[in-house]
Amino acid sequence: MSEISQEIAIEVRVQSTPLDPLQEVAAVSTGNPAIGGVVSFIGLMRDLNQGQQIAAMTLEHYPGMTEKALTAIVEEAASRWRLLGIRLVHRVGEILPEDPIVVVAVASAHRGEAFRACEFIIDYLKTRAPFWKREQTSDGRTHWVEARASDDQAAGNWKES
Amino acid sequence: MIRLLYFASLRERLGRGGETLEANPGSVAALRTELAARGDVWAEVFGEEQRVLAAVNQEMAGTDQPIGDGDEVGFFPPVTGG
To answer: Does the beta-carbon distance from A126 to B5 stay under 8 Å?
Structure first.
């Protein structure tokens, strides 16, 4: 463990119960007076995808690997930017429209590093963490969501030159 | 002996969540070739042109990645979380 990572409050969680984004943001915001800003991303389930009305979704994952992959992404962010806190929580199981799917909350002394680290974490999660969405359309049929090339491009933009 | 796990659309198409193999093919590429040789849906899923991701011991693995005795190998489609 490096000195830097010991100073950062890190929490990574995968849960099948509903997510409370504001509680996660509050948790990363408090307890360290060196924190000057918190940036968060909250991913929500939409009821429309590629022109189809979506009634519900099931999020499958690879237990064990998921936690390792999320931790690796968070540690990569902590090595690239000077951060004071990171919280990454992802939902699995049955999800309904408007439900929060993922919360990324990053605290730092100054805003710039928190903004960049937050976007980096969600971009990497989209292509490296083993989650799969299966949507149920309003007519009751289900299908697996296809990965998007634009997500690969977004993650690729963070490659260190 | 190696332990295989299949996830999401792969698990549904193959009709199983995993299995154990007594013989270890030695690498991810060799394992894919062996699974594709079973024919039918296996050939479709593990055919060379298919984009299937692999993890060895729960870490993303390239096709050259060696597989050791007792390793866990997961196969799955491109991920769609977040």
So the answer is: no
d(CA A83, CA B38): 50
The answer, yes or no, to whether ipTM is higher than 0.85 is yes
Burial of B1 (0-12, 13-18, 19+ CB in 10 A): exposed
Per-residue pLDDT tens over the stretch A29-59: 999 999 999 999 999 999 998 889 999 999 9
Tell me how many degrees the CA angle B2-B3-B4 measures, rounded to the nearest 5.
120
Looking at residue A145, its amino acid is: V
Q: Please name the residue of chain B whose CA is at the shortest distance from the CA of residue A57.
A: B81
Beta carbons of A130 and B7 less than 8 Å apart: yes
CA dihedral A46, A122, A33, A29 (to 10 degrees): 20
Q: What is the pTM of this model?
A: 0.93
Q: What CA–CA distance (Å, rounded) separates A35 from A149?
A: 36
Contacts of A109 (CB under 8 A, 6+ apart): A34, A35, A36, A37, A82, A84
Encode pLDDT of A99-110 as tens digits: 999 999 999 999
